[in-house]
Amino acid sequence: MSDIPQERRVVTAIPGPKSVELQARRVAAVAAGVGSTLPVFTARAGGGIIEDVDGNRLIDFGSGIAVTSVGASAEAVVRRASAQLADFTHTCFMVTPYEGYVEVCEQLAELTPGDHAKKSALFNSGAEAVENAVKIARAWTKRTAVVVFDHGYHGRTNLTMALTAKNMPYKQGFGPFAPEVYRVPVAYGYRWPTGAENAGAEASAQAIDEITKQIGADNVAAIIIEPVLGEGGFIEPAKGFLPAIAEFAKDNGIVFVADEIQSGFCRTGQWFACEDEGIVPDLITTAKGIAGGLPLSAVTGRAEIMDAAHAGGLGGTYGGNPVACAGALGAIETMREMDLNGKARRIEEVMKGRLAEMRSKLPDGDIIGDIRGRGAMIAIELVKTGTKEPDAAAAGSLAKACHAEGLLVLTCGTYGNVLRFLPPLVIGEDLLNEGLDILEQAFARL
Ligand SMILES: Cc1ncc(COP(=O)(O)O)c(C=O)c1O
Predict the structure, then answer these.
(1) Given strand 407-408, what is the order of strands in its sheet?
(2) At how many degrees (to 10) do helices 322-337 and 75-87 cross?
(3) Hey, which of 124, 131, 153 would you mutate to test ligand 1's pocket, going by the most ligand atoms within 8 Å of its Cβ?
(4) What's the predicted TM-score (pTM) here?
(5) Is 26 helix (H, G, I), strand (E, B) or coil?
(6) Are 111 and 271 contacting, i.e. CB atoms less than 8 angstroms apart?
(7) Which residue, by CA, sits nearest to atom 8 of ligand 1?
């Protein structure tokens, strides 16, 4: 890790003058469609801290959207990637291969659920992995339909825009979208009309009924689901939902794909979130946390399914870049050595305890409607006093108040009313508690 002090420090307004100057250059040079949560320009980052160009040190509760689980400058990632950088930057695995790619695929076979024979293919981004999972499932099943869920998020490319549920900002004005994509209900416990306790059974029955009646199970190549829905609001499908859908897929020859791009690699306190209910997916998509900040993604799954695509049908110039593979091996080494699953579970314990305490101190007509998530993937859903009406303005105000004090938090959710916490798993407990103090003060001032 870089020697960046693990202490919050606010020495200017946030953003400070140097960030403001850079932001003016950015606005002139960078396309408006690319947004930023907080226009504070980074100088260096590591552990639980992001240091900006003005010398402020922010507590990081975002991890670059669930990427830097091992920190943004983890020793093993920097060491292995730097050594690889000096050896060679690229040959293209499709031209002359290299060992790092194979090693990452071996690690994926070992770490993902199930003891069946597995193979992987590597890509650059999460969306690319999801697109390739669809290609592989179609090649294996010789079917075309793809089933996804309410509140799901799978990316911003053409096919993954179709798979993603939320229109604004991801889809608006960017159609037409890819055909043969069908959306069915998910067991969103907090908002399930007959109550969370019924959500698992009722939502799975509804989803299966819609698939059977409206699409025809025989036409479905793949069912794709995030075991904890990320951008949609950190929704853990109510218990029983995932097993019922996985079983339905199995009974009907449908490829069950777990999109673990956000929830994977120790984020929820297990290597993969689908392990929580003992699910063994046919295919798993991974990215984000896999490589300590370097761009890498993968599709991993049953060897016979993975081999269904003809030679040359999968790949891409940069897929499984050697520097990114070295970074992944460094990140996985760190996760094992530091027991980051254990760290994620401890973060959950601290966060959920503090959040419940904050909620109990709020006057009646609680605006924290729900506290949920697992490991270091925790969120609160904000609602208008005494109702379940989403309160996006409260989420925005709280985020802004935290930013001003040097705590980086992110929002998400179909209704924009969820404040989510994704600290690096290596964050110190003092820093974690200090971040939560800032959030508590922001609530007091709201
Ligand atoms: C579950 C899930 N799938 C896919 C993606 C897309 O990944 P990328 O942004 O790397 O294309 C994301 C990104 O947030 C994600 O959370």
Answers:
(1) 42-46, 49-52, 57-60, 407-408
(2) 160
(3) 153
(4) 0.98
(5) helix
(6) yes
(7) 126
Task: Identify any residues that bridge with 283 across adjacent strands, giving them in sequence order.
Answer: 257, 301
- pLDDT band per the 50, 70, 90 thresholds, residue 2: low
Q: Which residues line ligand 1 (CB under 6 A)?
A: 65, 125-127, 130, 153-155, 226, 230-231, 259, 261-262, 287
User: 166 to each of 36, 62, 153, 172, 288, how far by Cα in Å?
Assistant: 19, 21, 8, 9, 21
Separation of CA 126 and ligand 1 centre (Å): 5
Task: Write out the two tokens for 153.
Answer: 């998020």
Determine the distance separating the centroid of ligand 1 and the alpha carbon of 430, expressed in angstroms: 30
User: Which ligand 1 atom minimizes the distance to the CA of 155?
Assistant: 6
- Ligand 1 atom closest to the CA of 156, numbered from 1: 11
Dump pLDDT digits (tens) for 200-232: 999 999 999 999 999 999 999 999 999 999 999
The token duo for 272 is: 């993969």
Render pLDDT for 42-75 as a digit per residue (tens, 0 to 9): 999 999 999 999 999 999 999 999 999 999 999 9
| pLDDT bucket at 3, cuts 50 / 70 / 90 | confident
**Sequence-ordered list of residues with C-beta below 8 angstroms from that of 132, at least 6 positions apart, any chain:** 121, 123, 299, 314
- CA 270 to each of CA 80, 112, 121, 126, 337: distance values in angstroms, whole numbers, following the listed order: 24, 10, 22, 20, 15
Q: How confident is the model at residue 446 (pLDDT cuts 50, 70, 90)?
A: confident
Task: Please count the CA atoms within 13 angstroms of the CA of 97 that sit on its side-chain side.
Answer: 10
The minimum-distance atom of ligand 1 relative to the CA of 260 is: 1
